[in-house]
Specification:
Two copies of one chain form a homodimer.
Chain A (H helix, E strand, L loop, with lengths): L6 H8 L3 H9 L6 H14 L5 H8 L4 E7 L7 H12 L3 E7 L3 H12 L6 E4 L16 E4 H11 L6 H13 L3 E6 L5 H17 L2 E7 L4 H9 L8 E5 L2 H13 L8 E4 L16 E4 L1 H17 L11 E4 L10
Parallel strand pairs in A: 3-4, 5-6, 5-7, 7-8
Antiparallel strand pairs in A: 9-10
Helix pairs in contact in A: 1-2, 1-3, 5-12, 8-9, 10-11
Chain A binds a DNA duplex (30 and 30 nucleotides) through helix 2 and helix 4.
GO molecular function (chains A, B): DNA-binding transcription factor activity; transcription cis-regulatory region binding
Keywords (chains A, B): DNA-binding, Transcription, Transcription regulation
Protein name (chains A, B): LacI family transcriptional regulator
Chain lengths: ~325, ~325
DNA sequence: CGCCGTTTCTACTACGTATTACTAAGACGT
DNA sequence: ACGTCTTAGTAATACGTAGTAGAAACGGCG
């Protein structure tokens, strides 16, 4: 039960020889349809997957490719760099698997990856539905950024959105009282954490909140939200959940005649390559994505080995003050 | 000679048993220093690397991890998505390997990857020095974007920078005569291709070129170049090698009082997420990075199988007209 | 000189698969 | 009925490693 089934097990179950099973799986001719289906049914029943290591030993082919990425990656997010480096140091190799966008297919694919016997651990950097009870037998460690995120939030280390609080307090120090939040989609824990931090800070400091708008990562949509605001609103401080939303908001504000930052201050998140050159340059939060990736991988490896969780990283995020923030026009 | 050496070969060469070789490589105690060094010397002489498939078959551990990426990637560049999907369809698995930035270490690491016997093919999306004569014995296929790039250029399909010509001709049609090119680093074939296309077009259409400046991918540097231009230059059309350079240029132009696009038209390349929201929004070239990644992978797989090169992709790039381009102020 | 303990090495086996060589069973023409 | 050809399946083997059990060499001690 606890062991991974082999082609011998399938053969025994189906009442044929191991060779026959192998022929079925390699698609060789000379197998009757009846036998083939019998074998496939047995394989299904036992949850059999060919062992790729054994196969590649026999065929003398690895079936593996590498994509090498030089360190200053193609805006891969240094996330992968950090993760891959850490995995390598721990003696692991990292494979890339991509998934479809459709929710149902995605769940199925994740399940396939987890039950493929090919991986000792699986890491996801984006919110993914927790896989259905991975068939108890030796399931690989699974770590999704969503849990990760929430846990970090709980421990106050990462997506706890503390920089957002820091930015709001600074804006209040400059004289701002009226705020607007442009939020990201609610299935992104980071987006939720930022929204919650915004609401909590409004509450704690007794500020005026014009509302929470947005709900996706579209800069166009963010711009539309700004266009719908009443004319007499400024001075206003807009806290956007990332730089794309901030950029869309700035553009819409300028287009309706509000000057940034004199009438409207705006903050973003992510420090995209163009944020520095924007007009005005965007105040944002830069994340040390490489260290974040490394940390996520350390956690996964610890989970595999049954070690306790490693020390959480701190100072992974930093506010970068730029031109899009100023005291409100008096 | 043509075969990959095994621990048996090393044992024979060193005059010990295979077990001893295995013990040396797994670091087990109970091996005298003399024997250990003898084994290591033999292994070095034969270029031996443990066969990971055999090892993982024996140990029942794969040593492999996966990073799953959902389709609308984290601005991974859809490049990887396309490549991974294509590889999977061809029956391959894709591993991520990262390299250091230092040129010498990098060359050594690439060499290690190529001679590790672990990969049937290796793909690089960035310019990487062609590896030293990969020890003739069954070297894996290697495809670097640099060659790729240059070849595509030769066949007129990809980095042939044709969109750049299209943009310049359009600008001429609007009435522009005076041009400036902000180039990328000369070790990026794409950057070179764009510069060459610029120069050729200036020549062909008898335009006035203020010069070719730049030389790296820094937006700040691009801005400095624009700041050094003479005051009475506009009207001017700036052709930047990518959007970051374009953004830096726009920012510097606006800061010195030139309005964009009335005084200065600017074009970029890449269609970054913020380019659409920029003030003014940046005319750029969008690349179908997913198809590009898929094509690169098809080529790699074809090289492995000894097939001829697949049909080159066309229409991978498209000019996106935006606000940063207009007729020159009269 | 024989006994024991330690160190150092070797012979052998199992891991799970693909594939070659072979056998059994029909199908068919004469 | 007999030999031949085709089809469907099986037995046996090799791939390269790690590790178990055991052998050989060696030194110390009585």
């Amino acid at each position: 039960m606890g062991k991974r089934p082999t082609s011998h097990d399938v053969a025994r179950h189906a009442g044929v020889s191991q060779s026959t099973v192998s022929f079925v799986f390699t698609g060789r001719a000379g197998i009757s349809t009846a036998t083939r289906e019998k074998v496939l049914r047995s394989a299904e029943a036992l949850n059999y997957r060919p062992n790729l290591a054994a196969r590649s030993m026999r065929t003398q082919r690895t079936g593996r490719l590498a994509i090498v990425i030089p360190f200053p990656g193609l805006s891969l997010g240094s996330l992968l760099e950090g993760a891959v480096t850490t995995a390598r140091e721990a003696g692991y190799t990292v494979e890339l698997v991509n998934l479809s966008q459709d929710a149902e297919a995605l769940a199925q694919e994740v399940d396939a990856v987890l039950s493929s016997f090919e991986y000792e651990g699986v890491l996801s950097f984006s919110p993914i539905p927790t896989p259905r009870s991975s068939s108890a037998a030796s399931a690989p460690a699974f770590l999704a950024l969503s849990e990760f995120d929430e846990e970090m939030h709980a421990t106050g280390a990462f997506s706890d959105a503390h920089p957002l609080v820091e930015m709001m307090e600074h804006l209040v120090g400059l004289g701002h009282r009226r705020f607007l939040h442009i939020a990201g989609p609610s299935d992104y824990p980071a987006a939720v954490a930022r929204r919650d931090a915004y609401l909590a800070t409004v509450d704690r400091l007794g500020l005026e909140s014009v509302g929470v708008v947005g709900g996706n990562w579209s800069g166009i949509h963010a711009g539309n939200c700004v266009r719908e605001l009443p004319d007499d609103l400024p001075p206003l401080a807009i806290i956007a959940a990332n730089d794309v939303l901030a950029a869309g908001a700035i553009r819409a504000a300028v287009q309706r005649g509000w000057s940034v930052p004199e009438d409207v201050s705006v903050t973003g998140w992510d420090d995209l390559p163009l944020s520095l050159h924007f007009l005005p340059s965007i105040t944002t939060v830069s994340q040390d994505r490489q260290r974040l990736g490394a940390y996520a991988m350390r956690r996964l490896v610890a989970a595999i080995r049954g070690d306790g969780a490693p020390e959480p990283e701190t100072h992974l995020q930093q506010v970068i003050w730029r031109e899009s923030v100023a005291p409100p026009r008096t």
